[in-house]
Amino acid sequence: MGFDPALARAVPENAVRFLGHAEHTHEVPHLVHMVMGHGVLTAPGHRLVLEPRSSVWLAARVPHALDLSDHSIALGPVLREEISPDRPVAALGVVPSIAELMIARMAAGPTSPSQCDLFTDALERILVSLQQDAFPTPLPTHTTVRRIAFEACALPEATLGGLCSRHRISPRQAQRLFREQTGMTFTRWRRRRLLSEAARSLRGDSSLASAARSAGFGGREDLLRALSQETGVPVPEVRQDPRAHLPAR
To answer: Cα–Cα–Cα angle for 104, 108, 113, nearest 5°?
Structure first.
């Protein structure tokens, strides 16, 4: 079942919403939202499988492509320059307020700049509210170590040694700079960063498995162990209600 493929091309300027698009960039931040179906978004260091109602927040000038499966619809509103995520690619998972707003926008069909601004302003308010991390992780100030930090979250399985060799810095020096500039070891810093991503998804009513996947954990048990390690709550208790053990906003 599904809509007739000819319908996807009925309005040429909107066909990209049904068909996806090749790699390109935007000069301003950008949101990719899956209304229905599934898609795969690729960006430097990222390959994200998008589920229905999930979103990805992209910084300005990040090259990205979107491959949509049959019977899928994606929207891509652009944002003001200052409404930017704190990393190049931020997987938000399912955020109900965003999903509901995107449906409302489709139903309203705004055309004039003032009408479009009403929906864009509402979306930007939601995104700003998501900026606060459940597990704060200050970024290192050292340029090379900051690059390693971003890559560490984009490539959760990469080791510190492997990341350091790519940037010609010793793991010992990188670890020292992580401690000095963030107050944490590299391992704990990355764990907290990924947990904040998972927390956004969980608060958006994503399943535990989906939250783990979108944040870059190996699976739900890996996410439960990480949350247990960070909160000090035994895994069996965390498993009963993971959301209850997230820090209050």
So the answer is: 110
